[in-house]
Amino acid sequence: MISVGIIGASGYTGGELLRLLENHRDVEVVHATSRQYSGVPVSRVHPHLQDTDLKFQDMDPGRMDADVIFTATPHGASMKIVPEIIERGIMVVDLSGDYRFEDTGVYEEWYGMKHEHPLDAVYGLPEIHREKIRKAQLVANPGCFPTGAILACLPLVYEKIADTFIIDSKTGVSGAGVKPTSLTHYPECSDNVIPYNVTSHRHTPEIRQELSRINPVRLSFTPHLVPVTRGILTSAHTFLREDLESDELMEIFTGFYDGEPFVRVVDGIPRLSAVRGSNFCHIGCFEVDENQRAVIVSAIDNLVKGASGQAVQNMNIMCGLNEVEGLDFPGMHP
Amino acid sequence: MISVGIIGASGYTGGELLRLLENHRDVEVVHATSRQYSGVPVSRVHPHLQDTDLKFQDMDPGRMDADVIFTATPHGASMKIVPEIIERGIMVVDLSGDYRFEDTGVYEEWYGMKHEHPLDAVYGLPEIHREKIRKAQLVANPGCFPTGAILACLPLVYEKIADTFIIDSKTGVSGAGVKPTSLTHYPECSDNVIPYNVTSHRHTPEIRQELSRINPVRLSFTPHLVPVTRGILTSAHTFLREDLESDELMEIFTGFYDGEPFVRVVDGIPRLSAVRGSNFCHIGCFEVDENQRAVIVSAIDNLVKGASGQAVQNMNIMCGLNEVEGLDFPGMHP
Amino acid sequence: MISVGIIGASGYTGGELLRLLENHRDVEVVHATSRQYSGVPVSRVHPHLQDTDLKFQDMDPGRMDADVIFTATPHGASMKIVPEIIERGIMVVDLSGDYRFEDTGVYEEWYGMKHEHPLDAVYGLPEIHREKIRKAQLVANPGCFPTGAILACLPLVYEKIADTFIIDSKTGVSGAGVKPTSLTHYPECSDNVIPYNVTSHRHTPEIRQELSRINPVRLSFTPHLVPVTRGILTSAHTFLREDLESDELMEIFTGFYDGEPFVRVVDGIPRLSAVRGSNFCHIGCFEVDENQRAVIVSAIDNLVKGASGQAVQNMNIMCGLNEVEGLDFPGMHP
Amino acid sequence: MISVGIIGASGYTGGELLRLLENHRDVEVVHATSRQYSGVPVSRVHPHLQDTDLKFQDMDPGRMDADVIFTATPHGASMKIVPEIIERGIMVVDLSGDYRFEDTGVYEEWYGMKHEHPLDAVYGLPEIHREKIRKAQLVANPGCFPTGAILACLPLVYEKIADTFIIDSKTGVSGAGVKPTSLTHYPECSDNVIPYNVTSHRHTPEIRQELSRINPVRLSFTPHLVPVTRGILTSAHTFLREDLESDELMEIFTGFYDGEPFVRVVDGIPRLSAVRGSNFCHIGCFEVDENQRAVIVSAIDNLVKGASGQAVQNMNIMCGLNEVEGLDFPGMHP
């Protein structure tokens, strides 16, 4: 039995970690921290988790005893606590942006702050880095948009079929976290579609880093907030360098992702509801127009494959467990 | 031309007053106050109002010059500014709860605060008090739930057909105002139906006051928050004291509201979309079951007939204008 | 390994049965029928079920070989196929209304058709009939509204604390099934709350039958369609016959449902999102007003505890399996 | 007083024409046709239009007497009725795609049918063709997507600043019309974002025709269905041929649309709610990234500026009325 601690467990990704780990046969959650809700039963904050006796603790990360710790903390906060946990030999999956960048300068430019404690970390997208994750002590869990965007573009970059991408993503509101803001106020985002950080979203350099690792790309990214609770649908527009047809593209993707436990190349257009609540990424569409523009569409649940599910997948790999343990259930449609 | 000032113009009811008055032929808005947005163009805060040159002011109400002032201020705040405006001979339509109660004790019990400045005011439901409104200097604009609930029950109370009511209302989220809270955070209220203040909502004694004025009633009220932006749908359940059929009930309502400019008795079930954006109240259903329980359903737009539209209607009456001026357009379906 | 057949597997309840049974350790789905999609892979119709190789069959129910058959067929259709399956000694969980009524006359009156093949069946609400279900060959799976409504009223009826109920329910649109209609067309039901069958819904006599079994009741029921995909929130309004306070009511419910694997009495107001996708029924609120009206609120997922999950629970009981097998995961919030 | 007939008045664009014309001072609607609802009062089909006495007629278009006729008929149907109306000297605004293309071959290719009755028509986008509309007898009202897309790109094409466009549009579900389908079934499109006709939407050649009129373009277009009732938000991605900054772009747009009654260049990102129910098109964003990709965002109400409002605007121009008559009210936010 692997003992797990969750730092920052009262938010949406924390709640999702708890939901997923509740059915994980090899794991026991021993600590769930929250400064705000210290002493409060988990079931009061996460109304779906009525059968746990856990209470939130306001615990010093430096004294938390566990085999694996998930840091579901904001960027800037993770870098302050991860180093001391790592030093004590504990495995860490960090859900913030703090350890995702190879080049600390890129982090500092896009996140607008000094990185105080750089560490060696593996970027936790198993579809690219599975072998490194297996040996890692610190895994930087990918951002939600990058997960859907990288998986939609990766085979094309690998095969050098395309190098220019305009990625137009649509995200559910849970991606903004549990804290209410004007943007996430129901009357403001309901019945609206709201582009934001149109050319300046922090996930842009993350997508670029991972794709450029394979081959150089020219990449533009724009996210939109849509009146959906969970899910990111990514429409990746690209100009093909070769004259390929739809079924040839689909074949390339099917081959590339063969054997991947959580990527499914689907016939037709992926649906958010098909992956809702699950760790799957569905990829489809593959249409090409008269300008040789191809459109690849991916769908993920931003809180699962886009955050907590992928974090559990990474933990499974790091701990030598079955990669799909606790995650092998389908989405919820409708 | 009547000059109008709006105190508290940056919220949803303020924005709605500005939207409605923009097309009112006899009125000019001369002041729109907001402490938070002082100096900011109205068009920046209310994105739909691009054609006004108004800027928000942080103005002392005691020095505001206008024929009519709307106080779109929270309860507790209105009582601090209305008296000095009244003293200066200006007509006031107050959108808060501060002047709705005949018995100050009821106000103090349900609103949990001392009433510092009671004044004579007329309850601004024209369907009951039109003649008094005509002569009033201070009109207390009804609450959103009471508007829909009273209109749904009034003919039955008047005709002594029923005296026991269980009012189960469903409100759109704009009724909670412009300020984000946990309850109104999109992921929390989307795909949910949330009963709140189940037996303790402040609009309960307001409904009771107006119906009891006609005949004694035993009244229970429960509101629910639904994933809708605008609108209140009220299902008034009542036990009939006489054996009446559906079409007899409909006839009673049709007769009672004959000539009312903003009440429409409709065949079938009222739709929120049918009144969206408009000052109409639709009333329908009138079904009776084997327990002599009848169900009356009313639909209003909470921001229009439930707030700002009714306020303009009251202003029209107070100023001797055509009661429907600026308000005589239909709802928006779908 | 228990072999299972699903008749009518292409609709929402069929899809939900397939989703739930995919993770059930003791069961294998051997047949999934659909006349419309005969020969089509299940993954094409249910986009979330990408990992099954099942294809829909247009199979004669009289020749289907399985230990248990779920009939996810409309009322009127079930009575035509269930008898021959029963005759062959196969266990049946019928999700239609055809076998829910003890008195065939009630069925014929409310469903407007002759019942051609009455059979002995057990009403499949385990919280009332667990022991009978254990020995049954034919279980009539309860309707979605009755599940939430009966569980909200049962302890009060049992304890003779109340006998008059006005049940005001709000249902998600998936309850209307997979077939598009004007009512379920997005622009018509979005941003609306639509009462329907206000005094004539077929679930009324079903709720009444089960509660009256315990003690006589006077019961009125009205459903509303709300812009929610999954879930039924029921507000049961009742007048108490004794002077009880909120915490006394809660204690009665907690005691009554002690040990029930899928009923949770919660502090505060139940949330649809807390039970979404799960087989739990959450019950809460328990507020009492000055008219001795109490409000009990229950929340279920209409497709799970309100249909397919409860069907699996019934199968587990009938087959002597662990009652919670395949169902012991929490809801999905947000 | 101008007399108006509406052919196909029971759908969403028909209802919207009726809503808008109800407040038009210079117009009287004398005929509203519907084969399906012949004899039925308009108020029964359009629940928001309670104050009209009009009934739907099943009228032969060849015998309809009116100054102006709106044909709110599907493509393929318009071409069968417009010629005989034109022959009788009546002005026509056709809302279908039948008369939008200069090159009949393009129509036949994209609409997959032979054009039986080509006629001279003016493409009814006043921002391009106002003077021709003034003299036209037949105006082809633009498609909903083209209206938002052309207005977002036009100044850049005119100024030769860009010639390659990837247009990623998000439309509300009312754009699919009043007829229920699987795609528009609430549980299917709620909480989803659904790309459709990804490279094959019929509005593609329409956008291309109007922009290419000015200067050659390479244009790709992809629409998405979003869980919104009204509105189209268009994100036009383009690569600039010059090194321009955001405020320079904004200046170009502001200058270009100076004096246009229904286009507003806004600071920041346009909101669907800001134009909801109104005839305005808001254009904003203007951000540029490190790849010289610029993003222009436009927002319209698909049923108003994207259909019926623009049709009334065209009628006003054709009849020499004030262009904004009946349309000069702001959107509805929230």
CATH class of the largest domain in chain A: Alpha Beta
Oligomeric state: homotetramer
Number of helical segments with 4 or more residues of chain A: 11
Mean pLDDT of chain A: 97
What is the CATH superfamily of the largest domain in chain A? Answer: Dihydrodipicolinate Reductase, domain 2
Largest interface: A-D, 44 and 44 residues
Number of DSSP E strands of chain A: 13
Written as H for each helix and E for each strand, in order along the chain, the element string of chain A is EHEHEHEHEHEHEHEHEEHEHEEH
Residue share in β-strands of chain A? 15-25%
Largest sheet of chain A: 7 strands, mixed
CATH architectural arrangement of the largest domain in chain A: 2-Layer Sandwich
Strand order of the largest sheet of chain A: 8-9-7-10-13-12-11
Taking pLDDT < 50 over at least 5 consecutive residues as the criterion, the unreliable ranges of chain A are: none
Amino- and carboxy-terminal Cα gap of chain A: 35 Å
**Shape label of chain A:** globular
Number of domains of chain A: 2
Helix content of chain A: 25-40%
Radius of gyration of chain A, Cα only, in angstroms?
Answer: 19 Å
Supply the helix-strand structural class of chain A.
Answer: alpha/beta
Write a structural description:
The structure is a homotetramer of 334-residue chains. Chain A is α/β, with parallel strands linked by helices and 334 residues long. Chain A has two domains: 119 residues, Rossmann fold (3-Layer(aba) Sandwich), CATH 3.40.50; 159 residues, Dihydrodipicolinate Reductase, domain 2, CATH 3.30.360.10. Chain A contains eleven helices and 13 strands. A seven-stranded mixed sheet of chain A has the order 8-9-7-10-13-12-11. In chain A, strands 2-1-3-4-6-5 form a six-stranded parallel sheet, sandwiched between helices. In chain A, helix 5 links the parallel strand 5 and strand 6. The first copy, chain A, is globular, with a radius of gyration of 19 Å. The model of chain A has no long low-confidence stretch (mean pLDDT 97). Chains in contact: A-B, A-C, A-D, B-C, B-D, C-D.
